[in-house]
Amino acid sequence: MNNRLDPWGAVKIENYAKLFDEFGISQFEELLPEIKNPHPFMRRRIIFGHRSYDTVVDAMNRGEPFAAMSGFMPSGRAHLGHKMVM
């Protein structure tokens, strides 16, 4: 059976390492010591992966402006992933 990962369904993920490799995701835990006053979701390991968030952390630590963009799906409903960046 081929499980499809999408924001509208539920799939039991048995191999996060494979997903991290497939989607180019890095472990968030490695960045945690560099973040001043991290959000509780970060401290509690609810957020556990990232893509290029290290550039945001660098900008925050240097006091430089930064922006985060998210690809909202116009054909679908908002989901928890969208709430994380709103």
In short:
With 86 residues, this protein is mainly alpha-helical. It is 30% helix and 5% strand. The protein is globular, with a radius of gyration of 15 Å.
Written description of the protein model:
The protein is mainly alpha-helical. It has a domain at about 15-65. It has helices at about 15-25, 40-45, 55-60, 80-85, and strands spanning about 25, 50. The chain has a two-stranded antiparallel ribbon with strand order 1-2. The longest helix is centred in the last third of the chain and has 10 residues, at about 55-60. The chain is globular and about 45 Å long. It starts with 15 loop residues before the first helix and ends with a helix. The model has no long low-confidence stretch (mean pLDDT about 85).
For the termini, the CA-CA separation is: 35 Å
Q: How does the helix and strand content classify structurally?
A: mainly alpha
Helix run count: 4
Radius of gyration: 15 Å
- Write the H/E string, N to C: HEHEHH
Query: How many strands in all?
Result: 2
Q: Summarize the biggest pleated sheet.
A: 2 strands, antiparallel
**Segments where pLDDT lies below 50 for 5+ residues?**
none
From the structure above, extract its key features.
single chain; 4 helices; 86 residues; globular; mainly alpha; 2 strands
Chart the SSEs and their pairings:
Elements: H1 16-23, E1 26-27, H2 40-43, E2 49-50, H3 53-62, H4 80-83
Antiparallel strand pairs: 1-2
